[in-house]
Design goal:
The chain is about 5% helix and about 35% strand. It has about 130 residues and is mostly beta strands. The structure holds zinc ion. Zinc ion (ZN) binds next to loops. It holds the Pfam family OB_ChsH2_C.
Length: about 130
């Protein structure tokens, strides 16, 4: 494995229950459904937007680090992965007005927080 674990292309590091196969995020040693042991696993990246909002003012710093160009409003939301677990993520969209609940998203591990971007048609068909 040459992929750096914090690379933007990396899948989300979570866990999966050995007994009932439920996905767990953030990773936990115990399954939230059956209490059985869960093992570290990279979660599948496909999901849909469950709910979202726009952060219109700079969060407290630290831990927030404003980008070099200064703060700009950004969208955050919960992405419901196809595996069933909801993940809080930054929404990487070009147009905040184009965000819709239920839109297909692809989630990646980001630098500190997961990031989600609209799923392309090619990815949807794969
Ligand atoms: Zn379980």
């Amino acid at each position: 494995m040459t992929t750096h674990p914090r690379s933007p292309a990396a899948g989300l590091q979570g866990a999966r229950c050995r007994g009932c196969s439920v996905a767990v995020y953030p990773a936990d040693a115990a399954c939230p459904r059956c209490g059985g042991p869960a093992e570290p696993a990279v979660l599948k990246s496909a999901g849909t937007l469950w709910t979202w909002t726009v952060q219109r003012y700079a969060p407290k710093s630290p831990p927030y680090q404003p980008p070099p160009g200064g703060f700009e409003p950004f969208a955050v939301g919960y992405v419901e992965l196809d595996e069933g677990v909801r993940v809080a993520a930054l929404l990487e969209v070009d147009d905040l007005d184009a965000i819709r609940i239920g839109m297909p998203l692809t989630v990646r591990a980001g630098d500190g927080v997961p990031r989600a971007r609209p799923t392309t048609a090619a990815e949807e068909n794969s």
